[in-house]
Amino acid sequence: MSESTTRIHARPTASGWLQAWLPRLVLAPSVAVSLFFVYGFMLWTFVLSLTSSRMLPSYDFVGFGQYARLMANERWWVASTNLMLFGVLFIVICLVIGALLAILLDQKIRQEGALRTIYLYPMALSFIVTGVVWKWLLNPQLGIQAMVQSWGFESFRFDWIVNPDMAIYTLVIAAVWQASGFVMALFLAGLRGIDDSIVKAAQLDGASLPRIYWRVVMPCLRPVVFSAVMILAHIAIKSFDLVVALTGGGPGYATDLPATFMYTHAFNRAQIGLGSASAMLMLGGVLAILIPYLYSELRSRKHG
Amino acid sequence: MPTINMSVVDLSTFKKSALALALAAGTSMVASTTHANEVEVLHWWTSGGEARAANVLKDLMEAEGYGWQDFAVAGGGGETAMTVLKSRAMSGNPPSAAQIKGPEIQEWGELGLLGDLDDVATAEGWNDLLPESVADIMRYDSHYVAVPANVHRVNWLWANPEVLEAAGVEMPTTLEELFTAGEAIREAGFVPLAHGGQAWQDATVFESVVLGSQGAEFYQQALVELDPEALGGEQMIAALEDFKRLRELMDEGMSGRDWNIATAMVIEGVAGFQLMGDWAKGEFTAAGLTAGEDYLCAAAPGTEDAFTFNIDSLAMFRVTDDAERDAQQTLARLVLEPTFQEAFNLAKGSIPARPDLDMSEFDSCAQQSLADFQRTADEGGLVPSMAHGMAVRADVQGAIFDVVTNYFNDTTMPADEAAQRLVSAAETASF
Known about the structure:
The complex is a heterodimer of chains A (304) and B (431).
Chain A: H1 2-49, H2 65-72, H3 74-105, H4 112-120, H5 127-138, H6 144-150, H7 167-192, H8 196-204, H9 209-220, H10 222-237, H11 241-246, H12 258-268, H13 272-303
Helix pairs in contact in A: 1-13, 2-13, 3-7, 3-10, 4-7, 5-7, 7-10, 8-9, 10-13, 12-13
Chain B: H1 2-26, E1 38-43, H2 48-63, E2 67-72, H3 79-90, E3 97-99, H4 103-110, H5 118-124, H6 126-129, H7 132-138, E4 139-140, E5 143-144, E6 146-148, E7 152-153, E8 156-159, H8 161-167, H9 175-187, E9 191-194, H10 199-214, H11 216-224, H12 228-232, H13 234-246, H14 259-267, E10 271-275, H15 280-286, E11 296-299, E12 307-310, E13 313-316, H16 322-336, H17 338-348, H18 364-379, E14 382-384, H19 394-409, H20 415-428
Parallel strand pairs in B: 1-2, 1-3, 9-10, 12-14
Antiparallel strand pairs in B: 3-13, 4-5, 6-13, 7-12, 8-10, 8-11
Helix pairs in contact in B: 2-17, 5-16, 8-9, 10-11, 10-13, 10-19, 13-20, 19-20
């Protein structure tokens, strides 16, 4: 009995071993590479943030001194406040405009394909292009202000980009212009996935169209809103190219964001330790959004 | 059959490229190995004139029988080049020479990576050839580790003579005269002072104002020695107020503008003046203008007795091989020899690092620059440029930039608060 069991057991193992392990063997290099180049470098950045590294990495540990310096750095606070302002406005405005465009486009109109392409097109441009275009449009002596003034409205002023208090909002304008078409596409896909019979049932009950959208359709789109917020939030946190192209962080450092702060300090100002500390705080920011999201996603799947 | 052949070829090419990739990753992007009698030089002299100037050095090296391996990394201020250099140095494979300047030479020296040039320096008499303040920067721990290629003067005022004539003003020699001339130019319908609102340009103007308003001795105390009493004192507050007043002479489109676009405003007669280093001359020359006729140059207002310098230099890394060392020493010798100094500086708009050369080939601005350089080297008005990384280390410089640019752009910050921030910038920047 026992002999036959081993034989039966052994035969599939010999041929099945390869079958079972081949996928893992094939995947192993990419797993190893991403473990090393993503998580390894994250860990290395954390280690560097605990050192006094200046021009080159050194391993002279100073505890959390770099974090304390960062907290005392006025420019870091400007960058963080800017990120809050920029992130919230960017996400909210994109969601509102994207949802509106999607709802309007969902009314079985003609030429929907063409309109959809027009709205989505800015997403095909890089943030660098967007930044450069808006830099010229917002330049008070060349762009919108100059144009309106040349129409005869001499007192018209739109000089946000050169005004330290307002420049951060020009980033919002350019980023919203770029990303709201994409949010529209997400919402449109979601709207198309909603069962018509629910809407019909609501209509039979005598609900008005805005009410149907607000009470019936929007709640169905919750997963879409969630994905849109996730994507927009991480675009906001890693915004770097837009700032570089649009304002260069200026006037002064009024439009600095954590990403540009990190780059400037780590690579231009020979403060790798401080730059690493700011990078770790940015990672913390991303995790603070990602973990609750993953948690709610995984939990709902278990219950669902 | 052909199909099978194809796939075999493909597979072997794939293997080769995979191997090459793995090797490249494994050896941290080692570009190639230097032969014994070769020098590999990392630099960012990549614009047209600069590249031609660098080629002069290459030809000179080859004429002496040495190989030259060019390692040019594009990017104006050299930030990209420095990042590349750091990754090369970290992987234990630095080039034999690199364009490193100012206090950064000291930082590389502290890392123990620089080799010394004392033999060449003694043989060629560098101590007598170079002004003491220049030689000082080239030495780490009293050994020569770097060699200067040129001297840029930062405190220049450039002007368009037609605009000045239309407004009926002369070239200003003091800050007060600049403000008066600026008003007249504005009334005549021009932008008085062309400027680009980038942090380094704000700092370039700031240091010229500090120098013009309070003199070289104060500049040395405040922006080089970072004396807190000077940085936060009455004199600095006065200089900051003058600096802020200059803003009234600028146009509102300056934010984020590149320096060469500001220079173009002077060339095209849109603006009257620009405060910028002598690399601006490259733009005037490229536009086909002649110094002293089509454009004017003068020391920044109030600074005719002073000279803020910005020196490009090549630092030599420590090498073990004798033949490589020999090539390196030859390179160092050639950089300071008249042939290279003349050809390089004619192309670059700067002046030679050794003051004993015949200047008849150079234009009037360069001749004045060299005369002022020699005079101020003797009289003590020669100061390193803070805005161009010659005076303080990169982190302190960055912190000062932050304060200067923030103060310049903030309409509400009073000068005494900015001065206090300068003090704390100097204190907290270093770890």
